[in-house]
Amino acid sequence: MAKHSSNSKLTFSVPTPAVAAELTDLAMRSKAHWGYDEAFMQACRPELTVTDEDLANADSYYCIAQLYESLERKLIGFYKLQVQTQQRVELDALFVDPKYIGQGIGRVLFNHAEGFATALGASEMLVQSDPNAVEFYQTMGGVVFGETASGSISGRQLPVLKFALGSEGTLNR
Length: 173
Prior knowledge:
Elements: E1 9-13, H1 20-32, H2 38-48, H3 52-56, E2 60-69, E3 72-83, E4 88-96, H4 105-119, E5 124-128, H5 134-139, E6 143-149, E7 157-164
Parallel strand pairs: 4-5
Antiparallel strand pairs: 1-2, 2-3, 3-4, 5-7, 6-7
Helix pairs in contact: 1-2
């Protein structure tokens, strides 16, 4: 587990195409944190791959979290919001570098995504969750309301959670 010092600074920014491969690598490492085998991970690779075109899509909003310590930059997480309708967005991705899992980075990323979705005018956010992450999303205020088929693994169902958004967010956290 990596610890960050008091002189470190966490920043959020829009990624450039230059980091697409780095985002893909981070997504793969984060997904692998749950103990999935190599065959499973390779089946997920196409869905977890971030391309230049993905980053340029006008209906998608990517945000990266970087930790600066001294002069070193570390990409420690990212999320992707996908606009579905004027009132609904999907949190299509939220990944944290495994070295930083359990340190509150996921919560910070989620809160940032929630605030951005609210600023876009959305009143509802959906998440198709990895089964291992459902508890996290429930802690963040999500309610499981259905399932959807995995885009990577035939026969696998993924829980779908719903978050009500507003000026106060989903919870007073």
